[in-house]
Amino acid sequence: MSRAARSQLPVATPNGEVHIPLPRRVGEVLVPETAAADATILLPKSPTEEEAERKQRRAAWQRRIAWGAPALAAFALCVIGLTGPGLWADELATWGNTTVSWAELWRQLDGTDATIGPYYVLIRAWTTVFGDSDLALRLPSTLAMAAAAAVVGLIGNRLGSPRIGLLGGLAFAILPITTRYGQEARPYAFAVLAAAVATLLLLRLMEGFTLGIALAYAAAVMALGAMHIVSLLILAAHGLAVAIHRRKLLWRWTPSALAGLVPLIPIILIGRRQQGTQISWIPLTDLHQIEAFGTDFFGGALIGGAVIALGAAAVSRERGAVMAASLAAVPVALLMLLGSVTHIWLQRYVLYTIVGWAVLIGLLLAKRGLIAAVATLAALAALSLPGQVAVREPSFRYQDTKAVVALIERDYQPGDGIVYGLTDRGPGALNRDVIAHYLPENRRPTDLLVDRPMRTDGWMVASEHQDVASRLGATRRVWVLRLGEYGDPLDDLDGGKKDVLKERYDVADSWWTTGYTVALLTRKDPV
User: Fold this and answer.
1) Tens digit of each residue's pLDDT (9 = 90 or more) over 202-238
2) Of 337, 335, 138, nearest to 228 (Cα)?
3) Number of C-beta neighbours around residue 94 at 10 A
4) Each residue of 375-392: b (16+ CB within 10 Å) or e?
5) Under a CB-based contact definition with an 8 Å cutoff, are residues 366 and 62 in contact?
6) Less crowded by CB within 10 Å, the N or C end of the chain?
7) How confident is the model at residue 407 (pLDDT cuts 50, 70, 90)?
8) Which helix (H) or strand (E) holds 130?
9) CB 58, CB 162: distance < 8 Å
10) Cβ atoms within 10 A of the Cβ of 325, count?
């Protein structure tokens, strides 16, 4: 017998144990004699196993890119020009609520804007840390919109394809309306994020009910209503999708949705009491507003038409298409219907429906070839360019507050006073915020008529002294700030301001900016 053969035979050790040598086979790793008796023998992976691992790693990266790339795109587009236009009236209302004490904030919310009170609380806490500059006030909305784009990508992953998520998420990111409200210090971007998260969780529920996912869904519904109560119309879209695809889930979905509504009951009741002062100015829905939805909502007629056409082409009875189509259309239809009988229809109240449109686009393009999908997405990006430019213009925000401040700061002289129009067309009561936010005290005209400052003792609007003549005193130059464009800057000026100013002052100069009339009055020479 050869030496090699004898080496494979069992060997008895002095203590009576028998050592059986391991067979020497190709591909095996020999364990050294000094290794522990229980050492694991590592075998090289087969080519099939290595290929499977590579595919798993590639799929994991694709899933990450599907939500990461849209988030980065949305963040970049929202950051560009973020502090360009000044804060408009609604954003100044946000800023104003960050300037008061916590106790005063609660009093303010009891009188106005309770339906978005949680947003004000969030921004009040944020500005305590990061300040109240335009950048600090708008950045939370930018982050929320970027996160919403990521969730659209995750929805695509949940529907079975990272390509759906990537294409849908990028379509969401490039829409001008996404940028518009990602650059605004208001709660609508947060409502979009909460709606996207709730939709993602509902898809998970439709795959298999678990108590944890149901509670998370309820929390997302609660967050959505806390950011904007009208956004709860999303539940009609979700309920329809469940009824079509998983009818047996309705009895479990309904308690989950109701659990999210229960914590919102106080906000709903207070909001109902404030409805007359908050939204009574909104016109009833008519044919013009219905037409404007298609041309204005997405940031332009061309991009809007393209989105609607692509979304319509993607409609089918597939689970993802049913969910996305319901989200895109049902809240809009319901709010328009309600808006025909009560003052409630505004396009931004259904901003979150862009999540549905984006998912529909992702579903459609994912079924096409790569070249066709990329070309379509590039065409959408090209169509969105005019809208992307427009949303960064002051005119798109209704009021050019920075132009107002520039005019006053340019010609300001020590001793100047200022008079505001409180009953102007639109939120004229907030005119004082323009000056208070942008002009330092040493470059700010004296507020001649104020008695009680804004946001004091639960009153949002400032109170003014009724004896205008005595308050004007010997002031030589008076600025007049009006919301709206007036041929005569003193026309329809509230209270006794118009008569006293016309009697004592001449209009030295007046300007129109987007949404404002600014005038400089000089005292008449005594006769």
Assistant:
1) 999 999 889 999 999 999 999 999 999 999 999 999 9
2) 335
3) 25
4) ebbeebbebbeebbeebb
5) no
6) C
7) very high
8) helix 117-130
9) no
10) 24
Alpha carbon distances (Å) from 11 to 8, 14, 16, 25, 244: 9, 10, 10, 20, 73
Residues 6+ positions from 390 with CB-CB distance below 8 Å: 176, 299, 300, 396
Q: What is the mean pLDDT of the segment spanning 497-503?
A: 93
Which alpha helices (DSSP H) does 262-339 contain, by range? 265-278, 287-296, 301-314, 319-339
Gyration radius from the chain CA atoms: 32
Query: Phi/psi of residue 507, each to 5°?
Result: -80, 105
Give the count of beta carbons closer than 10 Å to the beta carbon of residue 340: 14
d(CA 256, CA 218) in angstroms, rounded, equals 5
The partner residues of 18 in beta bridges, in order of sequence, read 12
Quote the pTM value: 0.88
In this structure, what DSSP letter does residue 451 have?
A: E
> Which tokens in the block code for residue 225?
């209503």
Rounded distance between C-alpha atoms, residue 323 and residue 237, angstroms: 8
Contact present, 520 and 510 (Cβ < 8 Å):
yes
Residue 354: partners with Cβ closer than 8 Å, 6 or more residues away: 172, 175, 177, 178, 192, 298
Q: Within 10 Å of residue 99's Cβ, how many Cβ atoms?
A: 16
Query: What is the pLDDT averaged over residues 440-461?
Result: 90
Would you state the pLDDT for residue 400?
92
Mean pLDDT of all residues in the chain? Answer: 88
Interhelix angle 354-366/319-339, rounded to 10 degrees, is: 150
Question: Tokens 């708008």 appear where?
Answer: 138
Element (H, E) at 123: helix 117-130
* CB contact burial 157-173 (16+ within 10 A = b; e otherwise): bbbebbbbbbbbbbbbb
Alpha-carbon span 278 to 116, nearest angstrom: 11
Tokens of 498: 């118009």
Q: How many CA atoms lie within 13 A of 464 on its CB side?
A: 23
Residue 418 pairs with which residues in a beta bridge? 447, 479
Work out the average pLDDT over 2-22. Answer: 58
pLDDT in tens, 362-389: 999 999 888 999 999 999 999 999 999 9
Residue 133 is which amino acid? S
Query: Cα–Cα–Cα angle for 375, 376, 381, nearest 5°?
Result: 95
Buried b (16+ CB within 10 A) or exposed e, 457-476: eeebbbebeeebeebbeebe
